[in-house]
Amino acid sequence: MINFKQLHHFWSVARAGGVVRASERTGLAPQTLSGQIAALETTLGVNLFRRQGRRLVLTETGDMVLDYAEEIFRLGTELEDALSTRSAGRALPFRVGVSDVVPKAIAYVLLAPSIALPEPMRIVCRENKLDQLLGELAVHKLDVVLADSPLPPNMDVRGYSHKLGESPVSFFATPALSASLKGPFPACLHGAPMLLPGADAAVRRPLLRWLEDHKVHPRIVGEFDDSALMKAFGEAGVGIFPSADLISDEVCRQHGVQRLGTADSVRESFYAISVERRLTHPAVRAISNAGPMQSDSADTTS
């Protein structure tokens, strides 16, 4: 079993960039630190440092061990903070990144279980492009990121995607625009003005494929990265727009529109992306385990 005291000494030396600097920061003698690291190397059966002139530099294995040590002691600090916060009766911060393609109403539905927790919670939401949010997640500025797709395989971020659920997609239009359409759904969409999610939205390609399969060719009048802005244009009557059917009642009530019909085969999925496979933050566990969108096909992928 790893001696975590020795691991902490290794972590201190690696972060300080040398035994002497670590000694100055920790108040421990250089001989003590060197001896503890040597004992850890013996236990692990590997070399963690190598000499480069007068300097100590991490070996490739040492780099890997440091990554794990960073995570271990970060979690330890989080545990201390959580216990301190709970004992003092203060609200536990829950830092959430919301991808700009995720509808605001969906984000609320996904986060609602965390609000219902018995312990006080202070939600801090940040909205941005997915890649920007994942960068903040990687350096632990966020506890979780809500997105419409799992962690992209080309991202240099170690994380895990927890599927929260999915919803079919419906089309909406103002009463005036609805009245001008001809024929039943989905034929009535042919030639009609249409607003679409931007290229970053995971649902865009399935929507275009569905329209093509039904031989329906609307007139694309706008494309939007921000789903709220797309709905605002739809509310103004600029065009028909798609949205998750799960929030259809809210969309109709808030924007004064009507549901034209549903593309049942087009599913919009939503994920919680974290840097840990085993979820530890109580709010992240709540939205993963008790979300109202939870589907039978929920999974976890790295």
TrEMBL record:
Example of a GO biological process term:
regulation of DNA-templated transcription initiation
What GO MF annotations does this protein's record show? DNA binding; DNA-binding transcription factor activity
Occurrences of domain HTH lysR-type (ranges):
2-59
State the family named in the UniProt similarity comment for this chain. Belongs to the LysR transcriptional regulatory family.
Q: Which InterPro entries match?
A: LysR_HTH_N, LysR_subst-bd, WH-like_DNA-bd_sf, WH_DNA-bd_sf
* Pfam families the UniProt entry points to: HTH_1, LysR_substrate
Q: Mind listing the UniProt keywords for this protein, alphabetically?
A: Activator, DNA-binding, Transcription, Transcription regulation
> What protein is this chain from?
Transcriptional activator NhaR
Lineage top rank: taxon: Bacteria
